[in-house]
């Protein structure tokens, strides 16, 4: 891709664009039979909280905001219990990737995959050794991105908020 893909910390000035991106992603997910994001989650409060905690990021393509994600320092209560096992090399210190979405009009350009590599570099820069992510069992596009980024499937976790199962993945960084 000849275009420049970057990430930066999100600001409150980005919130309208973030919500547009998430609304489009939610609509597409539901149209594909993926109930992962309900009507209320993730919402304005979730992204404002991410921004306040300095864990919210936007993805830019040539300076235009085209995506969003949260990079959250563990522990994450959703990952405390797993049907399966986290990778043996895990020391329990990790960063979790949540609420990742790309503008539906920009999907198919490799933005999510490229962003996963940028996140990995960011985590390594701050001396992180492991990343974790989860997704719904019917979210095949995200599963492909996760696997392409080199994550290993570890088992099933259940979301604390509503008990729904998610496929859990991790990647140990060297």
TrEMBL record:
Q: Which PROSITE patterns does UniProt cross-reference here?
A: GNAT (PS51186)
Q: From what superkingdom does this record's organism come? A: Bacteria
Supply the alphabetized keyword list.
Answer: Transferase
A Pfam family that this protein carries is: Acetyltransf_1
List GO molecular-function terms, semicolon-separated: acyltransferase activity, transferring groups other than amino-acyl groups
For whether the record's keyword set contains Transferase, the answer is yes
NAD as a keyword? no
By its UniProt entry, which Gene3D superfamilies does this protein fall under?
3.40.630.30
Q: Which SUPFAM superfamilies match?
A: Acyl-CoA N-acyltransferases (Nat) (SSF55729)
Q: Any idea what this protein is called?
A: RimJ/RimL family protein N-acetyltransferase
Task: Say which species the protein is native to.
Answer: Weissella soli
